[in-house]
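Data card: per-record layout.
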Amino acid sequence: MSDTVFVEEGKGMRRNPLAFAVALSLVLAACSGGAPTGGTAVTAAPTPEPTTAADISLGGPVQVTIWHNQTGALAKGFDEMVADFNKTSGKGITVKAEFQGNYTQIYQKMLGAIQAGNLPEGVVAVENQVADYAKAGIVVEVDPYISSKKNGLSKDSLADIYQPYIDANKYPQYGNKILSFPFIKSLEVNIVNLDLLKELGFSAPPKTMEEFEKMAKAAKKTGPDGKVTRWGWAGMGTEAFLGHVMSRGGQILNADGTVAWGGPEGIETLKLLERCYAEQFCYRPTGFDWQDRFGEGNLLFATGTSTGRPFIQAAIKKPGGINWAIFGMPSAGTGKSQTIQFGGVIAITKSTDQKQLAVWEFLKWFTDTAQTAKWSITSSYMPVRKSALDDAALKSHWGSKDIQGRQAFDLVPTSVAGPSIRGWQEVRDAIFEAITKVQTAKAKPEDALKDATTKANNVLKENK
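The structure for this 464-residue chain is written out next.
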């Protein structure tokens, strides 16, 4: 996410609500005459008669386009995997992967593509964008493909995918249907300088909020001029806030669809942030320069996406290196540690039965054990499946070059799917505004959170 401590590739979307309302109204108007066909269908085998479009057989060569947001080495790795699928699937499918910018840029291009009736057959998005596409009526329900006896996933195969990764693709505003499928997955985690922790007299990372604050305060160090030269924590972004709320026993949403983070758990979380900056044991980053402080050995804790591991490793310049680790959210002492997971998904757009099945076949292949393990090594994203732990190449990679990758993966069972609802980005904006007000001492935690709660609930009401 753009406002987390670590950088998440392409993550973050700032949207003007009025501009979006106008754009979406145009989209809905464009869709009123029926969903775009996306091309000429290839006739499937006539027998046996399929029960649903998910149960057909591919009748011949079919090409589909998937819009994605991967860049640099990740784009190269993704292209190589797509090429491998095209060569080995044996189903006559050709996937054409097209880079279309970050999430926001893809979203904007999708609005234009809907109006023009020229959609890609698959598109990478964040969940709240998929919810918008669902309102426009251009995404395919994935449940029938998952449960198809002919083309779906077995019970054991589905159970092998971590439940939060499936839950993230269920859309409560649309009958809790699965309208997308996992693509790139991360979760909010903490990192710790184990060498500094030991130097301060602590034997292990904190398990409670009380221990976390005690250790962070102990790490503060000042120079002869009284200026702080070493810090305990680099503060929090939106996902860290939600992780702290849940680990204090709170929730993200209430049963009635209003936000649940505006209560005592949210206030206590912002009070920790207030103390952190007032007592100067928090580092105030400029961009991502906190990574430099960590790499120098002058930062004990940081919080952010698990995908930030390569950036952390690259920033370590201290002679002899730094022994560091990933650990979970501290709890309030009575509850369990919980965090939030996030990352891009792929939605299948309405085209032809043949093309829709072709995209599903690719998603099924890409998230299978061998491929999800390979993609994790290439990208540092989390594997989708539990069985990836049995992959020899991933075992070797995590056992030597990326020990912290396994540490992050072990925290996946503590993760909760973020809400897949329209308006969620504006809710995130409201949370981030509250965090900013507190860390800049422009508002007390209670007032900042009350204002954020009101704004968030108004957005959710407008987007029901």
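Known properties of this structure: Residues 445-462 form the longest helix (18 residues). Residues 17-39+52-185+343-408 form a domain with the D-Maltodextrin-Binding Protein; domain 2 fold (CATH 3.40.190.10).

See the next section for split statistics.
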